[in-house]
């Protein structure tokens, strides 16, 4: 009997949420220090023009401004770096796959992470492959946090040598008209970088694979 080794994603999501909060806090602190530094500089300049401040006081204010300005820029740059790093290393768990060899067949089980729906089917081949569509947003939207849009459509069997070998496939979801439009006209749609088909394949084994999606496509990892 085929069984799944389910992953506890709460810790992973918790780390991601804490990382995002930390990045936001660093950025807010940087902006707050920058605002204070600007207030100090403006007050110093106004004081000089109104002759309410001596030269020594002006130099003290300038030193304080430069220190706060340096710390604020460092915090802002760190926040921007962490945001960029987070977006380019982010991965979403979208399902689990178990594929076992049984005689000439590959016994497949696919479970979606979000909908908790299982698919049972058989494939023919030396390998199995998961296929789908992938929509990549423009760089600006990705940096702001827009996740890639994807769709798992089907699984197919693959032969290492294709001479007169029977083909097999299992359709998870139908080929939607929207994706046909996206693939044909992606370069004409605002805020879309590219739309294309993606796939990942592996050999059948007794391992359960976790299917991830990141900024480039599918990732298969053994549990």
What does this structure look like?
This protein is α+β, with helices and mostly antiparallel strands. It folds into 2 domains: 12-88; 93-222, no CATH class. It is 40% helix and 32% strand. It has 4 helices and 9 strands, in the order ααββββαββαβββ. The protein has helices spanning 10-49, 55-89, 139-144, 177-185, and strands at residues 92-102, 105-112, 118-124, 127-137, 149-158, 169-171, 192-202, 208-213, 218-222. The strands form 2 sheets. A 5-stranded antiparallel sheet has the order 3-2-1-8-9, with no helix packed on it. Strands 6-5-4-7 form a 4-stranded antiparallel sheet. β1 (92-102) and β2 (105-112) form a beta hairpin. α1 (10-49) packs antiparallel against α2 (55-89). The longest helix has 40 residues, at 10-49. Mean pLDDT is 82; it is low at 1-17.
